[in-house]
Predict the structure.
Amino acid sequence: MKLSTALSALALSVMLVACSDDEPKEKHNDFGLADSYSVSRMQALQLYTTATGTSYTWHVKGPEGAVFRAKGDASLFNFVAITEGHYEACLTIDGDIDEVHNFTIDVTHEKDEYSPNIAQVHEYCPAPGQFVNTMPEYEEGDTHLDMCAKCLDCICGTNDEPITLGGFGGYVTFSFDHSVVNVSGEKDIRLWGNTFWDGSGAGVGGGSSEPGIVMVSIDANLNGIPDDPWYELAGSEYHSTGTVHNYEITYFVPDPNREIVTDTKASITDRNYILWMDNKGETGYVSKNMYHSQDYYPAWVAEQSISFAGTRLAPNAEDVNGDGDGSLYVLHNYEWGYADNYPNTDAEHNSFDISWAVDENGKPVDLPYIDFVRVYTGINQYCGWIGETSTEISRAADLHLAQ
């Protein structure tokens, strides 16, 4: 997830910060910009100037008097607004002679009403797990695109049918039919999973929490593909001592010559099923259990190994039975900021603020809007008969449109 110099400049160009209402210094027509633009709300308008200078200031005044500015060394500016109306804008280029171009932007209502729910699944890349190839179901000959389409059938609109992300790192990437605007002081998106509370936790919050880390991205190059920089929404555990950043793991296709080891007490039929190795020098297995006999390695993946990278959260499982036999696990929730971490009835803890975004170095990033969301399993742990910890996602919504 490294940022190139060009993308860094582009990310800077879309950061809007309140400022004073500056007076333009002079009109210059050789900017490669029109005098007026029209764009639907929550859709990006890409503005590019052919004029050169040492720095650029894009200044926009909204219909309700709000003033926004993007300043930096980027000649490219992506404008997105949630409020309809007439916007007065200008570009100031600092150089040997300061130059200014004034123009207007009319933000209109969309022709076809936006949906608050998921519109497209771009990537479905689960890590091995006991529900892989069944949630959604793999059929002989299915490709990655086929599996993405099946995921969309499960989680688009209000369908609310969970898909599994498998073990640590497995992910899904999706988008809405519009850009989700980062509204100051408000949560912006909500995610649904399949967490439930278990009363056996001796009063401690938890049960089946399988926290997933949420990433967001802007379609900065407007190509409709999630190939721009990604930013983590830093939850409550981001700075915790048990959290491992820059974690990498590789899973391998099952070795046909492996020794088959069973454990009846733990309901395990193949303990050494899928080998994994990480960048911390640790190894382990995704074991196969008696409840799920299908292949756990994604059947549409031809490669002999698959790798994932990201932030690994500390294990959250506790064997509460007291004798250490692994017969009763409780998976405790984290405080906030993770998918599939609280039951779906808890709207507040399943909602996320784009303002939590940080870059690869943990530095806060001011994103005015986002176009893509990625969720991946954030824990690497195996819990006896209940198997690996795997985040599940069942739907999502833009809270600024949701009814």
